[in-house]
Amino acid sequence: MDLRALRAFVEVVRRNGFSAASREIFASQPTVSKAVRQLEDEVGLDLLHRLPHGVRPTEAGEVVLRHAQAMLASRDTMLAELDALRGLTRGHLRLGLTPFGSAALFAPLVGRFRAAHPDITIALLEQGSLTLSEAVLGGEIEMAMAILPIAAGLEWQPVWDDPLVALLPEGDPLSGREAIRLEELRDRPLILFETGFALNEVIQRACAARGFAPREAARSGQSDFITALVASGLGVALLPRLMVAPRAPLSMPVALVEEPDLRWQCGLIWRQDGALSPAARAWLEMVRAALPLRR
């Protein structure tokens, strides 16, 4: 099978359509459609349900998708091993970073890595932890930042263990406290995070352990906007202390949330079944040296 056709099919499924897939692989939409149709002709089965608003893989499509992702990942591993023979004079680092915490933890290291390896191209994907985990498992990127819990099939290098702090609106009865318990936020509206952010699950699981569900006031993937929503009085936000400390002093009350099961534990993830490229190994070594697990 043609690996280009397999990649076109994988991107059509991943991007939920031919137009988005064509932009991702820098090919025209007719070219992508033709590649998928030729693949269907080759296997003798329809691989996609073509819906009014997107696509969905058929049962045969699910089989092809699973094997296509594995074949594309194997190709990337082969190229990585060839890069290893050439050394780090060239290569690619396909890295995923979350919007939360990356500026403080990894932005300086990206600049240092680029200076040390100027001929390594760096492709960054910025998404929530859950989305990045899927991208690593699917072979879209090689390594990513993520927070616990880690999905099956992934290796994990811990980097940071941080408590959460509560950003409180002015005048909140909890204002003035240095530390609070999660139970005290039971009746307050919370500003949560967009779909794909694993921190939502951490918060929801901790609330459930205390017998309540968080009252959702809004969702956002941008820490600045979340802070502004708190300042407007919309609700309380729970953020890693690392992200709040550089903003101090804030114009709103901040209190440590003292709960052992409510922490932001982040690190780097990569596939268990694939060899890391020389570029990814160099990045991992740099992170291990600069950011041994801290709390």
From TrEMBL:
Residues 1-58 form the HTH lysR-type domain. GO terms for cellular component: cytosol. It comes from the Bacteria. GO terms for molecular function: DNA binding; DNA-binding transcription factor activity. Keywords: DNA-binding, Transcription, Transcription regulation. Pfam families: HTH_1, LysR_substrate. PANTHER family: HTH-TYPE TRANSCRIPTIONAL REGULATOR YBHD, NITROGEN ASSIMILATION TRANSCRIPTIONAL ACTIVATOR-RELATED. Belongs to the LysR transcriptional regulatory family. This is HTH-type transcriptional regulator gltC. It comes from Roseomonas mucosa.
